[in-house]
Write the structure tokens for this entry.
Amino acid sequence: MNDTLGTFPRAAAPSDEIRVLARGLALLKAFCPRNTVRSNGELARMTELPKATVSRLTATLTRLGYLEYLDESASYRLAHAAVALGFGALSTQDIRVRAREHMQRFADDNDLVVVLAVREGNVMVCHEVCRGRGALTIRVTAGSRLKLPRSAMGRAWMATLAPARHAAVLRELEQAFPDDPLRPALDEAAAEIARSRFCVTVGSLEPDVNSVATPIDSAQSPGAYVLGCSVPAFRYPRERCVAEIGPLLLGLRDRIEADLEAANGAGGS
Amino acid sequence: MRKRIQALDATNGDEGNRGIDSLQRGMEALRCFQPGENALTVAEIARRLALPRTTTRRLLNTLAAHDFLFSVPDRDAFRLHVASFVLGQAVLSGSELVSRSTPVLQWLANRHALHCLLCVRDRGDMLVLAHQAGSGTTHCPLRAGSRLPIARTAPGHAWLWTQPVATQGEWLTPLRASANPAEHTHAAAIYQAFHDLVQGGTCASFGEWRSGVGFIAAPVALAGGDSAVIAGVHTSTAPHERRHIEHECAAALLQAAGTIRREVRRP
């Protein structure tokens, strides 16, 4: 599974980027998605920063309360206070909260895994994962990162981009995944999205798993969120994904979008 | 907010420098966002951080480049974004305290049809790490990541009770010395809570944080002298109902606190 998680790639830095803050953020991200315990040496390797810089940053973040130092292993992990860095405010109004109930019902009714994800660099980050009782497909949890070009959700997200941005992102992906023939798969997904508003991938992340994805149209985060579901390939070959799962997923998307629209109409700022 | 930043700057001591200030200020920018606030303008964030707008904008652009914030199209504003969520989720999913407390909170929530919380101290607040709703309960605005003021809620009072006398004094002295009568009321409520905790192991508060919302809380002693707090949340406004809930819940709350204490100390 680690093979699919990837790393946090660096996006192009803004011209006025504050370097020490950028490095601190990269360090915090290195503990995601499961708050893995890390030494300064590991952090230095992961973030490609000098070890002395990492040591200074971890010491500062520990003093600020966002990291916790573990004596026995001479290493660090995120402290509880890191939850205060926006998580609470985000979770009260995020699309996740609105979508979760619909997604869980959908997962239970259809016995599959349904995921809400956002693009971050070259990966799709799973924000919410709901799974039916017997769903044994892809082992993702909230926070898991799927390689963008190999996931149906990543391909669906690419299909939402304007041509200039699509070309720019494609260049980044081609550098990050030099061995993958990206363009044919992305073009096929874009054609599917244009035709039926969802796309299907066959075994692109794991060999026995097929996936379906569709972008969500949210006024709060236009083009940011993608909804996807994974099903066992032996039960749902491509044809059944197109004929059955795709339309069901579009129904789920419509319900979530209607809920978001109602929430915004009710005064969500 | 200016006071808070100054206080934080002071903690930098001899190591303080502009770079470290920037890291700290970036973290503070993320903490600016409160539940119910979607997007904040650059001007508003600058005001809350007591920083010049140009400095604030650089902080926000850096946070946005790393997906902690999202620049709202066509507005000079930002809102929280995926990395803030992923970071919080990583803490919660990797926390033994949370994972071992959650089933106990669910049991408590179902038994008394309450919302139940697990909180730890974060500066002047109690930070909610876990929230479980009992079956049939109405909506509760509190969830993981919410913050409750220590001086005005039973979870805060229960945490303060576990602290050394000197720490208690740091909280109580300014409240008692304040010219604001409301602060005296908060101090009196804290003393009452200490009395109740000595007598029965739990304490309660109602309406001091938000009208119509009440808490009953019990501390959980953790390894290393640290403390967490578990609490039940209710919205019963009638005094006799409140007393009934507080009385009914107290024993279960203490039982739950004991179970969590044993669970988190289990290897």
About this structure: The beta strands of chain A are 67-70, 75-78, 113-120, 123-131, 145-147, 199-202, 209-215, 225-232. The radius of gyration of chain A is 20 Å. The CA atoms of residues 122 and 176 of chain A lie 8 Å apart.
